[in-house]
Amino acid sequence: MSKLKKGCVPNIRNVVHCVPGVMEVVEIEWPKASRSKKHDHGRSHGFTRVLEGDVYVAEKGVYTIYHPGDTFTENPDTVHAVGSVYGAKTLHFYSPPITGTMTVFPDEEDDDVSRDS
């Protein structure tokens, strides 16, 4: 497991459905104090729904908090980090599948959460 900054723990990612080359559905459990690394979405368009708890999305220096039932989208040029302070569960729909196509940025780039840094 790679070293994570700020004492955060990784999320638990589970692909629940996939049509190769077309789409995938991913459920992510966000343990308390978890946070993704800064990443893009490859060629994928995404739609995310918060199922349980609250998540935050950090993009271009702006933090947005989403609650159960809230949704947000990701485009191929979206670069962000996602996390949860108290724990959460989210459901992600990606087309085409994001697995293997996204870029995860080095730790030193995490703080800014902006492609233009």
Describe the fold and architecture.
It is a single chain. The chain is mainly β and 117 residues long. It has a single domain, classed as Jelly Rolls, CATH 2.60.120.10. Helix content is 0%, strand content 45%. The chain is built from no helices and nine strands. The chain has strands spanning 12-19, 23-30, 34-35, 45-53, 55-59, 62-66, 71-74, 81-84, 88-95. The strands form two sheets. It has a five-stranded antiparallel beta sheet with strand order 1-2-9-4-7, with no helix packed on it. A four-stranded antiparallel beta sheet has the order 3-8-5-6, with no helix packed on it. Residues 1-8 and 112-117 have low confidence and may be disordered.
Topology:
Layout: E1 12-19, E2 23-30, E3 34-35, E4 45-53, E5 55-59, E6 62-66, E7 71-74, E8 81-84, E9 88-95
Low-pLDDT stretches are 1-8, 112-117
What top-tier CATH class fits best?
A: Mainly Beta
Reading side by side through the largest sheet, how are the strands ordered? 1-2-9-4-7
How many DSSP-defined strands?
9
Q: How far from one another are the termini?
A: 26 Å
CATH architecture annotation? Sandwich
- Topology order in helix (H) and strand (E) letters: EEEEEEEEE
Mean pLDDT score, rounded? 84
Total number of domains: 1
Oligomer: single chain
Radius of gyration: 13 Å
CATH topology name: Jelly Rolls
Question: What key attributes describe this structure?
Answer:
five-stranded antiparallel β-sheet, disordered C terminus, four-stranded antiparallel β-sheet, disordered N terminus, 9 strands, mainly beta, single chain, Jelly Rolls, 117 residues, 0% helix
